[in-house]
Amino acid sequence: MATYMWTVYLAGEIHSDWRERIIEGSEDLPVEFYTPVTDHEASDMCGVEILGEEQSAFWRDRKGAGINSIRINTLIDNADIVVIRFGPKYKQWNAAFVAGYTAALGKPYITLHDEEHDHALKEVDASARATARTPEQVVDILKYVMLK
Amino acid sequence: MATYMWTVYLAGEIHSDWRERIIEGSEDLPVEFYTPVTDHEASDMCGVEILGEEQSAFWRDRKGAGINSIRINTLIDNADIVVIRFGPKYKQWNAAFVAGYTAALGKPYITLHDEEHDHALKEVDASARATARTPEQVVDILKYVMLK
Amino acid sequence: MATYMWTVYLAGEIHSDWRERIIEGSEDLPVEFYTPVTDHEASDMCGVEILGEEQSAFWRDRKGAGINSIRINTLIDNADIVVIRFGPKYKQWNAAFVAGYTAALGKPYITLHDEEHDHALKEVDASARATARTPEQVVDILKYVMLK
Amino acid sequence: MATYMWTVYLAGEIHSDWRERIIEGSEDLPVEFYTPVTDHEASDMCGVEILGEEQSAFWRDRKGAGINSIRINTLIDNADIVVIRFGPKYKQWNAAFVAGYTAALGKPYITLHDEEHDHALKEVDASARATARTPEQVVDILKYVMLK
Amino acid sequence: MATYMWTVYLAGEIHSDWRERIIEGSEDLPVEFYTPVTDHEASDMCGVEILGEEQSAFWRDRKGAGINSIRINTLIDNADIVVIRFGPKYKQWNAAFVAGYTAALGKPYITLHDEEHDHALKEVDASARATARTPEQVVDILKYVMLK
Amino acid sequence: MATYMWTVYLAGEIHSDWRERIIEGSEDLPVEFYTPVTDHEASDMCGVEILGEEQSAFWRDRKGAGINSIRINTLIDNADIVVIRFGPKYKQWNAAFVAGYTAALGKPYITLHDEEHDHALKEVDASARATARTPEQVVDILKYVMLK
Amino acid sequence: MATYMWTVYLAGEIHSDWRERIIEGSEDLPVEFYTPVTDHEASDMCGVEILGEEQSAFWRDRKGAGINSIRINTLIDNADIVVIRFGPKYKQWNAAFVAGYTAALGKPYITLHDEEHDHALKEVDASARATARTPEQVVDILKYVMLK
Amino acid sequence: MATYMWTVYLAGEIHSDWRERIIEGSEDLPVEFYTPVTDHEASDMCGVEILGEEQSAFWRDRKGAGINSIRINTLIDNADIVVIRFGPKYKQWNAAFVAGYTAALGKPYITLHDEEHDHALKEVDASARATARTPEQVVDILKYVMLK
Question: Does pLDDT of F127 surpass 90?
């Protein structure tokens, strides 16, 4: 049997080390990981820094979101699996947006969040292939899927 | 010129009268409106009420979300335009999920929310065709699009 | 709010009255039901009856299956919801084939079967929006989805 | 003329050595084979082993089927050809589900089963490009398709 | 059960009365038939008659084929079933072109031709759902598919 | 034979009476015509009039273009045929954008322009089904396609 | 600028040396060529040789066409460009079938045939990107497209 | 984290050195650039040079545009990002055509043009992910998207 080289995109929360824990835990797996830009400041300011200042906050955000979407859309379209992390804080609407986008493509995704958000995320989880509570569980899923 | 009969799906927040205000304001337009089930209690409990009780809250939500998704997916797939309302409270991840799903279909959607959420919704707004602040602005957009 | 006219395709087992029970239970709903040819003898023999006898059973089946697929594919492609019944007897591989075909289209389906088949149908149920045990539960789901 | 590197996914029955016979017979062909997890126990238990125990057998199966679907869907989507084996025992609804899913994608598949199942598999065979009786016939088809 | 209104496109040979025989035989069926322009002279000359003369026969044909393709593509895209007739004379490459186009859409088609063309049409027939020898057999297939 | 009800979208130049001439010439045809908003001032200002003033001309245009795209995309997606007029003046990049968008959908379109623009429009014309010089020629094409 | 590695599928007539002339003429190009099985006898008999004899010629052809379609569909789906040759003899309906299939995928193809077939191939040529008269012209097109 | 190898297609104006400036500025990026044929004379004459002279300028252009479209369509379909430059002169309808084609594919594109064309390009810019004024800004966007 051949070894498939998997591509996984890690979307969502950028304030904890969940990405590192998944990547480190997967170092023996045939997998390439991709992420959005996780430098919060850079992500927010890329539009105006590159294309010039805006007076209105709305259009400043628009410029940045447009540029970030080039990376996000390409890497999701190119991924076999998307892992989407919802952290304990903030609205994180972009993470739920990624889930809906991925679901419409018929591409499998795994959610990663605490039990306290189960009810609020029920539509997002219902389209997921699995809901994990820890990065280590995500690693175990990847190990099973890729190696067994 | 012929009159196109438009189909609009009204997604998101269910605690204020924004849907009624849009529907009433559009009564002279060639449009049919559709919505998710907006009875919160019924929406949460439909799974276990129809298919039997669950001990775990997670699977109770799953059962309900599965049934609701039949309606939601069909009506979005059938809509020309989706309007997505984000209210002042709650996580509303299902609304952002609808936005991502609609964006991936290449179908136009309009967001409706206050300025305070602009930054958190920047990815969702960047894929929207318009961001309105009031239901009346949504009505004005529909009037322009359908009647002009 | 407008009333959506739903289209439901009833696939699977043809030896009990489950279709009649769903159709009768739904008579107040805005729904049109479609089915495969449920006359077993006619379904098996249509190929050779119309296009001429075959010496081999394999090609006799092929002729019939080809003609039946015209109806089945068209009506599934045209449906909003597919209900798939697995009865207590026979292999019923055509029902599972319909489930896989419907899943790949991203179209919602509901499975209807007894608990004893849960394990054997786990992949089929995992892609379903709901698993019902009785035709009356299917009717309740349709009522909720179409009327609430 | 260039040599195309083919990708073949081997779906279905896991109780006999048909996969090994195809893989060994194809060792001189430009082909990479992929399979589902064929360790029955691991496949059944992966959900609860990784994500935690469930009281109900239905949800235990759901958890496992969700995780297995990540592998199955990705490898089918990535395959040029799917070979689907129906053995002499069990319902094997997942194999028929794979056939329907593959058919809807317009991707070629080959069925592999004994004559006794011809009638029950007539819809599945009618969408297949070929129906083989032995793994050696499948190898001969692959040789013809890839080398001639 | 509801009555589905079927749409059938009748493609191919224009020198015999096969279309009339199918349409007349189907007068009690819930079906709408569409055809290409079957006036040979008009079909050949439409390009230059409407858009102006051409010196080269190649471009005269191109102009006509472009206009005819507007009708053909739209009506095939809109059809549930395509019936494709190959007559005893001429190359009829446009009929085989329609078959390939329809096959790629995953849309069911029926071929109608004499046994003498079986070998030359083997690829076209292999993707068909049925191969009929007479218009009356096509009518019988439509009756079975639409009425049973 | 049934009568197909055609849908035609009239895109492009808004400074001459070409739309009226096509619609009037087609009054006996089974066709419904749709157009973009052809009131130039309204089209330019709809964004800021409905959603509030902008200081920058760039974002003023963006707001209007977003709203107009709701109408344009929906009506093109819903059309059987698109007619695209390039007039003697202005850049008319939106007309060429519509042509590219329509081409990518595999939907037939007809261009309408003078000979002087042939070279500049060669890529746009190469994907068109016909290039007409006068609205009357477009009417003749529609008559041929719809009535013959 | 990077060098794109092109994939070209050479479909159609198998009685002359046109494939060799194109492949030899392109030896300095960044291109991989693929073809159907061009051994006429092997192509006709593959079905019954591998899967067992048939009494009826119709089903013998079906078996072979099914197996050949695995190769043909995969290689067309994988190609950037399809070249389709119509020779002076035979019906060659499979070549026109390939053209229709390729057109429906929106994939570019080049036809290669003598002027005497222009009228019979007008629909096939109208969807082609170019019509060549000699293999050397095809090589020149590939050189221009790949190297310029 | 893995390094994604990006593919960028540079479309539009061929009279200034903007492509060179982007390619040189990106030499440390993981990116492969592709372009249309930028030799104006060759691009205009390829049709008649390879396939033979035409008396009418319209068909001479058609022949060339058909051949060029093989390259353009393939490279856009294969690109992750399209950059589209509108220069100060000429109609450049082919550039706007590429934008519409790319937008319909849901593929991200960046426009590059001076402020004076903002109003005429408002529909094209509204579907773009970013509008740059200089090649260096495009490089900065690529650096951010690919390296951050």
Answer: yes
Asked whether the beta carbons of residue F130 and residue E46 sit closer than 8 angstroms, the reply is no
Angle between helices E57-77 and E93-104 (to 10 degrees): 40
Tokens of B107: 């179908």
Phi-psi region of H106 (alpha: psi -120 to 50; beta: other; left: phi over 0): left
CA distance E121 to E13: 15
C-alpha torsion sign, points F35, F39, F43, F49: negative
Amino acid code (one letter) for E109: Y
Q: Which residues of A touch F59 (CB under 8 A)?
A: 56, 59
Distance between CA atoms of A70 and A79, rounded to whole angstroms? 14
Distance CA D83, CA D138 (A): 8
Does any CB of chain H come closer than 8 Å to the CB of residue E56? yes
- Mean pLDDT throughout B57-72? 98
Lookup result for tokens 């209105």: A56
Q: Which H or E run contains B29?
A: none
Helix A135-147 to helix D57-78 angle (10° resolution) is 60
Looking at residue B81, its pLDDT comes to 98
| Amino acid in the structure at residue H75 | L
Question: Across the interface, do F50 and B137 touch by the CB < 8 Å criterion?
Answer: yes
- Summarised one tens digit per residue, pLDDT across range E23-64 is 999 999 999 999 999 999 999 999 999 999 999 999 999 999
Chain A residues lying within 8 Å of C106, measured CB to CB: 104, 106
φ, ψ (nearest 5 deg) of residue D109: -135, 155
Measure the CA angle with vertex A108, ends A107 and A113; round to 5°: 130
Task: With cut-offs at 50, 70 and 90, classify the pLDDT of residue D128.
Answer: very high
Mean pLDDT, chain B, rounded, equals 97
C52 contacts: CB under 8 Å, gap ≥ 6: none
Q: Is F148 helix (H, G, I), strand (E, B) or coil?
A: coil
Tokens of H15: 């009279």
Give the model's pLDDT for residue H1: 81
d(CA F58, CA F48): 12
DSSP E1-67: -PPP-EEEEEEE--SSSHHHHHHHHTTTSSEEEE-----HHHHHHHHHHHH---SSHHHHHHHHHHH
Q: How confident is the model at residue D81 (pLDDT cuts 50, 70, 90)?
A: very high
Residue of E89, E91, E126, E101 whose CA lies nearest to E111: E126
Collapse the DSSP code of E118 into the 3-class scheme (helix H, G, I; strand E, B; otherwise coil) and give the result: coil
Average pLDDT over chain C, rounded to an integer: 97
Nearest CA in chain B to A121: B93
Question: Within an 8 Å CB–CB cutoff, is residue G122 touching chain F?
Answer: no
Contacts of H17 (CB under 8 A, 6+ apart): none
Nearest Cβ partner of B108 from F34, F50, F74? F74
Give H49: exposed, middle or buried? Use CB within 10 Å, 0-12, 13-18, 19+. Answer: middle
Cβ atoms of A95 and A83 within 8 Å: the answer is: no
